[in-house]
Amino acid sequence: MNINLTQTNIAPLGQGSDSPKLINKLTDDVFKLTDNVSGKVKDLDVAFPDANNYWRIWARQLVINVCGGYVSPNTQALSARFTTVSIELLKIKKLTAWATSHHPDKPLTQWGEPECTAYVNALAFNKIDVAMHERFKEKELLAFGTIDNNLILLKATGTYYRKGFLNDGLLAHLPKDFTQMVLKQQVIDMGVDYVAWLKGGSYGRFPLEISMLLLSEAIEILRSPSTHLLQAYFRAQRGEFKLHPESVVFNGNAGSEPRLKLYLEGKALSKFQGLNQNLNNTIPHFANKVEEEYAKLQGLDKPLPLSDIFTLKGVKHVNELCLEVYDACIIVFLCLTGIRIHELSNVDADDYDIQVDGTWMFRTDINKTHFGCSEMRSMSGLVAEAAMILNDLSYVTKRDLPDEESTPLFGQYFKAAHFDTAPSAIKSKKLGISTNAMRNHIQKFYETLIEKHGEHLRKICENINPHGFRHCFSEFAIRRFDGDVLEAIRQHFRHRVGSSFTRAYTDDKGFDDIRQGAEHRYIKELLHRMVGEDAGDFTGAMALHVRREVNKMAFRTPGELDEFLNDLSNDFDSLKPHEFGFCLVLTETRHLSKCLDKKTGVPNLLDGCFELCSGCHHSFRSKKSNYDSVLRNVLSHEDFLERFPLRSSQHFKVSEQVVERGNKILDAME
Question: Is the pTM of this model over 0.70?
Answer without folding.
Answer: no
